[in-house]
Amino acid sequence: MLTRVKKSLGLTEKAFYYLLAIVLAIFSLGPLCILIFNSLKSDSEIGVNPLGFPLNPQFSNFVTAWTQGDLGTTMRNSTIITVGTVLGIWVIAGMAAYALSHLDLPGRSVVMLYLIASFAIPFQLFLIPLYFLWSKIGLTDNLFGLILIYWGTGCSLPILLLRSYLISLPREYSDAARIDGANEFQVMVRVVLPLSYPSFLTVGLIAGFQAWNEFIYAVTFIQDNTLLPVTTSFLAFQQSFHRYWGLTNAAAVIIILPIIVLFLILQRRFIAGLASGGLRG
């Protein structure tokens, strides 16, 4: 009798977890499905049927959105910005995390406090001063100027994640390399970094997603239409008193498709690196 009760409770618990997983899946995938449905509708059909299946699919929305939004140019610019941002953050965050985790630096606690406190500072506070500074030194309308901003504003979390992962690595490997005569740079490049590539992949994906999706800095510091990133393409589907919602949704599907494909390919390593990089002391 007791065994039957335990089995019944186990089945009830499993049913609850499955139901919870289904609800969460609907909650997360529902907006994406609606986005795809609306990308195949005309504006009039979206007004009448905003949540249902497209009754008369408009596949031409994707062609029109690609042309009118100049997505070929903006996606090329965003690719340059994203790759440059990821490479720079790998170098900056990797060296900073190694120094904070493997070197006996004075004031490490102050640096850690600064990195954590930087999350609470809204970037709007220094947006205008930064614009005047960038204008003075000629970094507006410049992809490298935008990448430089992303390096400065996007390094805090990667440094913390990498540091927490590097702390967990066995010190025997780096100590053995030092005994063999390796200097700190050689220890970092030849010993520590090869052992920590999952965490670098994780912070690279996080930094890349942020750079690809960022809008405020891009629209503020880039005015040249040939240098605009992909998030600004949505401005092409808006007039004074009307927005073309079908084209907007079609452009959104095109823009998020590379991100979804990349995440699906690397999701296991991304989750493993994120789990192993929990913020340890």
Distance, first to last CA: 49 Å
Largest sheet: none
Uncertain segments: 277-281
Q: Over the alpha carbons, how many angstroms does the gyration radius reach?
A: 24 Å
Based on the coordinates given, report the CATH architecture of the largest domain. Orthogonal Bundle
Write down how many β-strands occur, each being a DSSP E stretch of 2 or more residues: 0
Shape: globular
Portion in beta strands: under 5%
Question: Helix count?
Answer: 13
Count of discrete structural domains:
2
What do you see in this structure?
Helix content is 73%, strand content 0%. The protein has 13 helices and no strands. The relative contact order is 0.14. With 281 residues, the chain is mainly α. It has 2 domains: 38 residues; 209 residues, MetI-like fold, CATH 1.10.3720.
Task: Provide keyphrases for this structure.
281 residues, disordered C terminus, transport, MetI-like
